[in-house]
Amino acid sequence: MHNIVPAGENAILIYFGNKIDATLPEKIGNFANQLKDTLSDVVIDVIPSYTSLHVSYDLNKINFQTFFNKVETLLDQQDSGNSVVEIQTTHIPIYYGAEVGLDLERLLAEKNLDLKSFIEIHTSQAYLIYAIGFSPVFAFLGEVDQRIQIPRLATPRIKIPAGSVGIAESQTAIYPADSAGGWNIVGRTSLDLSLNNPENVDKFRVGDQVKFYSITRDEYFKNGGLL
Amino acid sequence: MSFKVIKSGFLSTVQDYGRLTHGEHGMNQSGVMDEHAYAWGNHLLNNHFNDAVVEITFGGLQLEAQTDTFIAVTGADLDFKINDKSAQMWHGLQVNKGDVLSWGNPKSGVRAYLAIKEGFDTPVLFDSRSVNLREHIGSKLVKGDVLPCKEFNQATYRFIPPQYIPNYNQDIVLRILPTYQFNEFSINQRDLFFNQDYTITNANDRTGCRLSGAPISIKKERMISEGISYGCVEIATDGLPIILLKDAPSIGGYPKIGTVFSLDLAKLAQRQPNTKLRFELMNIHEAQKQRKKFNQFFEIGFNTVS
User: Fold this and answer.
1) pLDDT computed for residue B237 by the predictor
2) Which of A89, B254, B275, B282 is the 20 to 30 A CA-CA neighbour of B9?
C-alpha cells in the first residue's frame, strides 16, 4: 500500500506505511535507487526516512500529474518484483568509558547494569539505518534493546563532541560533527565521520546496517581518538 | 584577482543556487534566501544562473576590489556605497582595483546580494559554493578573507524593468500549496490558519521563520520524521507556524499544513521582525506554471541525479 502526497511545487512524499517497521527502510532505500535510475532525467533528489520517501523533481521538464503517474506505475511494478540490492554492514569501533560517555554512569545506575553488560547489549546487534538527517552523515539506528532504552535529556546539551554515540529511547546514533543535542552519550568512536573527510558523505545508506564493537581506551587513542 | 574583506559586518556568506542533490545525505539545501534578487543580480551581468554571490545580511560589510571587474548589487537597500559615495543598485557597475564597496544599515529589506561578473570562485563543496554554517560547510566572511574572482575590462549589461524592483516595506501574502498533512487539519484549524494576520518574530534566520499569532490547537505532538521541502510550514507543539527555509534540516517531525510558493519565500527573506503576513491557498498547477516561467526567463536548469 502506498500513498503519495504533494510536498511542494516540485516535490512529492511517498508513504510506504504509517508506522515504524523494520522491513520498510530497505524497501524505501531500494525504491529510491530505482527511481533515480529510471527517472534520472527528472529526479533531483531523494530523502528516505523511516516510512516515507521525499522526492524532488525538475518542474521545467515534467509537471506534477505526469510525475505522480510515473511514480505510481513504478511503485506497482516494484510490488511485484524482488529487490536485489545487498545489505551492507558498517562496523564502528567505540570506546565506552565515562570520560567520553557523558551519560554512561547515570545510565548504568538507572538501568542497574555494569559496564560489561551494557557494552554487550549495545554491541550485540546489527542496527538498521532508518533515516539519515538532522545533519549530514547522522544515521538514525534502531531498535535499541529495551534494557538500555532511556529518554532524551530534558535540556539538550549545547555541544556534543564529534564522534559521540548516543541513545534516545529506541534509537542510537553517532554525532558526526560537534553539535547541540539531547541524546544520552555513552561512548565515542575514534573514526572521523565528519565531512572533513568528504568521502563520508555517503558512508551510511537507509536500509543498510551498522554494528558497533568495543575498543579499549588505549586502542581509542592509538586510532586517533581525542578527548 | 579578488576582493578582500576589510570589515565583516553582521553576517555575510557566499551563496549560490544551493546544494540541491544531497538531501539524501542529510544535508540541507542552502543557497540564497531571496531567489528573485539573486536571479536578477546574475541576469544583469549576463552570468550563469548558478554563479556565486555574497549574501549580505543587515549590512556592515566592507570589501576592497583587488582587480577591475563588473558587479551588480540587488536585494535590500543597505546603504550601498562605492568609495563612500552612494552607488546604484539593480544595475551593472564597473569597479576598479582599489575601490572600496561598503554596506551600512538597512534602509529597506534585510539581505543584499553582490553579484560579480562570472561569479565568485570560492571552493565547490558537495556540488555547491553555498556556505552552510549549521553543517560546518564553509564559513562566514571575516576580516582579511579573500574572495577570488576574474578580471574583466569589458562587459555588456542587461537592464531591469522598474516594476521588478520590489518594495520590501509592504506586508505580504504568502501563497501556500496544500501539501503533507494539510488534509489532516480540521476545517476549523485551517480557518484559523488562513483567516488571521501572523507576525514575523525575532526567531527568523536562514533555518526558519517563526510566526506569532493565535495558536491552532493540535492533537498530535510529534510524528514520524519525514523529508522536508523548502518552504514547508510546520505547526509546532505551541500551535504556531514555523516556515522552514534554506538551512532547515533535511528531515523533521512536526505536522506540516502546507508549503509556501518559492517566489513568495523570496519576499519573506526581505521582511524584518514585526512585519504582518497572511497565508492564501494556491494550487500546484498555478505554482508550477509561475515557477516554470521564472526558470525559463532566468535560464535556471537543474543537474538531475547522475
Assistant:
1) 86
2) B275
pLDDT above 50 (res B296)? yes
Cα–Cα distance measured from residue A101 to residue A109, given in angstroms and rounded to the nearest whole number: 14
Q: How far is B83 from chain A (nearest CA, A)?
A: 39
Name the CATH superfamily, with its identifier, for domain B172-297: Cyclophilin-like (2.40.100.10)
State how far residue A206 is from chain B, nearest Cα, in angstroms: 9
DSSP code for A200: G
Distances in Å between the alpha carbon of B242 and those of A7, A203, B68, B198, B260?
16, 31, 43, 11, 11
Note whether B225 contacts A50, CB cutoff 8 Å.
yes
Q: Do B26 and A195 touch (CB under 8 A)?
A: no
Cβ–Cβ below 8 Å for B180 and A132:
no
Residue A18 lies in a domain: yes
pLDDT higher than threshold 60 for residue B188: yes
Contact between chains at A58 and B304 (C-beta distance less than 8 A): yes
Range of the domain at A57: 3-80
Which pLDDT tens digit goes with each residue over A164-221? 999 999 999 999 999 889 999 999 999 999 999 999 999 999 999 999 999 999 999 9
Q: Inspect the interface and report whether the beta carbons of A48 and B126 lie closer than 8 Å.
A: no
ipTM: 0.95
What the block records as the C-alpha cell of A207 is 536500509
**Whether pLDDT at B305 is above 50:** no
Same domain, A71 and A119: no
Task: Decide: helix, strand or coil at residue A217.
Answer: helix
Nearest C-alpha in A relative to B19: A45
pLDDT in tens, B140-180: 999 999 999 999 999 889 999 999 999 999 999 999 999 99
Say which of B136, B288, B305 has its CB closest to residue A9: B288
For chain A, what percent of residues have pLDDT higher than 90?
89
Check residue A84 and give its pLDDT: 61
Contact residues for A122 (Cβ-Cβ < 8 A; gap 6+): A94, A96, A144, A145, A148, A167, A172, A186, A212
Q: Give the H or E element holding residue A66.
A: helix A64-80
Contacts of residue A54 in chain B, CB cutoff 8 Å? 23, 226-229
| Domain locations along chain B | 2-164, 172-297
**Chain A contact set for B27 (CB, 8 A):** 136
Tell me the mean pLDDT in the region B122-135: 95
Which residues of chain A, if any, have pLDDT below 70?
79-85
**Together in a domain, A64 and A146:** no
CB contact under 8 A, B226 and A50: yes
Helices A64-80, A24-38: axis angle to 10 degrees equals 120
Q: How far apart are CA B221 and CA B254, in angstroms?
A: 7
